[in-house]
Design brief:
Number of strands: 0
Number of helices: 3
Distance between the termini: 50 Å
Largest sheet: none
Radius of gyration: 22 Å
Strand content: under 5%
Helix content: 40-55%
Order of helices and strands: HHH
Length: 69
């Protein structure tokens, strides 16, 4: 069974047609965006959280050393 078929299992004909339409339009929009040069959206690009920032500019080597083993 394919992923799409497993998602549609148990839906009536109307819901199945609507779901397939949504999937097809989403795929078409993604393909058009890629053809126009856009990359796929990443969670960090579309989420509400800001990225973590590093301060100090120093190297982190040694902060988690396993010496003494």
């Amino acid at each position: 069974m394919t992923l799409i078929n497993s998602l549609l299992e148990g839906l009536d004909d109307g819901d199945r047609d609507r779901t397939v339409g949504l999937i097809n339009s989403s795929i078409s929009a993604d393909l058009e965006n890629v053809a126009a040069g856009a990359g796929p959206a990443r969670q960090v690009d579309v989420g509400t959280r800001s990225r973590a920032r590093r301060s100090g500019g120093g190297s982190r080597s040694g902060s988690h050393s396993k010496s003494g083993r």
